[in-house]
Design a protein that fits this description.
eight-stranded mixed sheet; alpha+beta; 2,3-Dihydroxybiphenyl 1,2-Dioxygenase, domain 1; 2 helices; elongated
């Protein structure tokens, strides 16, 4: 469906105790190339070579997939109209917007739009 709400997996976040030890494992030992690092938000993005999704190591989030959507406000509205709920209202982030919704079964979905581009 071209009008599907969830477009792709933007990233999978993996919690680590600190970025340096996370990079030592995922970059240095497993071979994933570093795309970007943002110490202010406790995250670093690494390449997943067979697609456009990123592996994001994080010191502040849980293990989760982040779903790419065309527009966070529109996706939130669609999920709510379909019977889901809002967990976290849309907010601005450096690359666009993010919100967290839950499906009727209690699964949380992190929705991200890249309306301001990707991290460099």
């Amino acid at each position: 469906m071209d009008d599907a709400v969830l477009r792709a997996v933007d990233a999978v976040t993996v919690p680590v105790p600190d970025l340096d030890s996370g990079l030592a494992f995922y970059r240095d030992r497993l071979g994933h190339r570093l795309l970007w690092r943002n110490d202010a938000v406790g995250q670093a993005g690494l390449v997943l070579p067979d697609g456009e999704s990123e592996l994001v190591i994080t010191t502040r989030q849980a293990y989760e997939p982040d779903w790419l959507v065309s527009s966070v406000p529109n996706a939130v509205a669609a999920v709510v109209a379909a019977g889901g709920t809002v967990v976290t209202e849309p907010e601005e982030i450096p690359v666009g917007r993010v919100a967290v919704v839950a499906d009727p079964f209690g699964n949380q979905l992190v929705l991200v739009d890249l309306s301001k581009g990707r991290y460099e």
